């Protein structure tokens, strides 16, 4: 255990988790001590938000974050204490418990590392509440460590694949979004330097100011970047498509992409690659197709530049408990309102949140990723009814309802018709030529992981 730790009260509850990971201690500890590690280990189903970027762990560091568990929104402040062997302890300074100490220990086991996590806690207000709460708290901690151990294993495996490749300077637009925030944290734990494009006054040297309205960007800060990942764009779902909203959606994608493409083309020291997001809606026609076509055509200034490779990443339906379709479907399903929509046969070409991050990383690092377009979807699209039924199964809820197509059209208009009643079956053919290793090929597997419903020992 970490030396110099403070003793816990004799009546405190104790939970311990052990996990062996097939990487040596130095590599595992190095990962933990990089910025982004905390964000990567925070479970999707707890909806953790931090007060600004999380710095790398160091002795005496205090960090604050907000945690949402079910209907509860909790403020948490923790002190990190590091010992001489780089094991460390998190001590809760402010939070929902009377006491909370989490000891992290890294034990070398040849070419592997045994992770020992020990949590000591007491209930708030009265220690007498600790024992009746032990069962629910232990269950929550079990789900937590199940999630983080799988994600840690996956992230280390993906970084290991390209460990001989140089570390890069990578700029990301949309870096606070669902994909951008996770990608930023993932790349940081891999030792890359990550720069965020921001629309406010930069707070540090790794922020690059850009303004879509004035079509300005801090070009001098883009010099020296190796890769730019362009993810920014107005959210297309969640409301009816009025003419004003449709114009806003198209303009946000067109203007942002043109600004990035034009600025990169003008640089003397160009990045070697621009990866620009689009969506599989390009195959669907209608307004979705119109948006994607405008989005991709806006890349024109960056095309045919001999030093710059442009790659379009067409995203499918990204499954994450933190946002997007899965987040919107979870509460109705928990309330027993999961439903087949229309015929239920419309295909959903989905992809796990972690596989999106892994796929973009593959496009960044793999020199064989030379195709102009990659469809980021899982190999197994499913009918909408299967998605709804599987989610109900994972959440242990009934699945009795069906919503007629005419009701969807009345409530949501064109958005409902194109997003909810239509679908496109897409396969990741180009991605598979790179031998990309999907972690989640089965729908139930990703839903259990994202929602903390895996069957853990």
Describe, in plain words, how this protein is organized in 3D.
The protein has 457 residues and is α/β, with parallel strands linked by helices. It has 3 domains: 13-147, Alpha-D-Glucose-1,6-Bisphosphate, Chain A, domain 4, CATH 3.30.530.20; 162-315, Rossmann fold, CATH 3.40.50; 320-351 and 370-457, NAD(P)-binding Rossmann-like Domain (Rossmann fold, 3-Layer(aba) Sandwich). 35% of the residues lie in helices and 25% in strands. The chain has helices spanning 25-32, 37-41, 130-161, 178-189, 219-222, 243-266, 286-297, 324-334, 353-365, 384-394, 405-420, 429-432, 443-451, and strands at residues 13-21, 49-50, 62-69, 72-82, 88-94, 99-109, 112-122, 169-173, 193-198, 207-211, 216-217, 227-230, 273-279, 309-315, 317-319, 339-341, 347-348, 350-352, 373-376, 382-383, 401-403. The strands form 5 sheets. Strands 11-10-9-8-12-13-14-19 form an 8-stranded mixed β-sheet, sandwiched between helices. Helix 4 (178-189) packs across helix 9 and helix 10 (384-394) crosses helix 13 (443-451). Residues 1-9 have low confidence and may be disordered.
Produce the secondary structure layout:
Blueprint: E1 13-21, H1 25-32, H2 37-41, E2 49-50, E3 62-69, E4 72-82, E5 88-94, E6 99-109, E7 112-122, H3 130-161, E8 169-173, H4 178-189, E9 193-198, E10 207-211, E11 216-217, H5 219-222, E12 227-230, H6 243-266, E13 273-279, H7 286-297, E14 309-315, E15 317-319, H8 324-334, E16 339-341, E17 347-348, E18 350-352, H9 353-365, E19 373-376, E20 382-383, H10 384-394, E21 401-403, H11 405-420, H12 429-432, H13 443-451
Parallel strand pairs: 8-9, 8-12, 9-10, 12-13, 13-14, 14-19, 15-18, 16-21
Antiparallel strand pairs: 1-7, 2-3, 3-4, 4-5, 5-6, 6-7, 10-11, 17-20
């Amino acid at each position: 255990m970490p030396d110099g730790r403070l003793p816990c009260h004799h009546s405190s509850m104790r939970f311990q988790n052990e996990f062996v990971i097939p990487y040596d201690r130095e590599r595992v500890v190095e990962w933990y001590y990089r910025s982004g590690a905390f964000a990567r280990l925070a479970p999707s189903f707890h909806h953790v938000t931090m007060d600004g970027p999380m710095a790398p762990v160091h002795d005496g560091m205090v960090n604050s974050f907000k945690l949402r568990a079910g209907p509860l929104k909790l403020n948490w402040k923790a002190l990190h204490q590091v010992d001489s062997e780089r094991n460390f302890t998190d001590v809760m300074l402010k939070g929902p418990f009377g006491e909370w100490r989490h000891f992290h220990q890294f034990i070398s086991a040849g070419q592997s590392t045994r992770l020992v996590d020990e949590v000591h806690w007491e209930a708030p207000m009265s220690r007498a509440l600790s024992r009746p709460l032990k069962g629910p708290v232990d269950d929550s901690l079990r789900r937590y460590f199940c999630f983080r151990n799988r994600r840690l294993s996956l992230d280390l495996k993906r970084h290991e694949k390209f460990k001989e490749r140089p570390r890069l300077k990578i700029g990301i637009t949309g870096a606070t979004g669902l994909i951008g925030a996770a990608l930023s944290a993932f790349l940081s734990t891999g030792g890359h330097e990550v720069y965020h494009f921001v629309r406010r006054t930069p707070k540090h040297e790794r922020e690059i100011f850009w303004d879509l309205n004035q079509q300005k960007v801090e070009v001098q800060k883009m010099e020296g970047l190796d890769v730019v990942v362009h993810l920014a764009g107005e959210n297309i779902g969640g409301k009816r498509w009025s003419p004003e909203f449709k114009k806003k959606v198209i303009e946000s994608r067109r203007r942002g992409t043109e600004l990035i493409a034009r600025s990169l083309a003008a640089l003397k020291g160009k990045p070697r690659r621009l990866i620009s997001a689009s969506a599989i809606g390009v195959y669907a026609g209608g307004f979705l197709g119109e948006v994607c076509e405008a989005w991709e055509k806006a890349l024109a200034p960056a095309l045919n530049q001999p030093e710059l490779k442009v790659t379009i990443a067409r995203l499918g339906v990204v499954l994450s408990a933190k946002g997007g379709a899965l987040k919107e479907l979870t509460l109705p399903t928990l309330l027993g309102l999961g439903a087949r929509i229309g015929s239920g046969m419309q295909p959903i070409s989905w992809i796990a949140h972690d596989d999106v991050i892994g796929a973009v990383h593959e496009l960044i690092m793999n020199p064989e990723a030379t195709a102009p377009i990659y469809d980021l979807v899982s190999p197994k699209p499913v009918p909408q009814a299967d998605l709804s039924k599987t989610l109900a199964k994972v959440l242990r809820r009934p699945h009795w309802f069906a919503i007629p197509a005419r009701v969807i059209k009345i409530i949501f208009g064109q958005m409902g018709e194109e997003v909810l009643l239509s679908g496109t079956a897409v396969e990741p053919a180009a991605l598979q030529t790179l031998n990309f290793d999907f972690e989640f090929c089965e729908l139930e597997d990703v839903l259990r992981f994202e929602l903390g419903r895996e069957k853990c020992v």
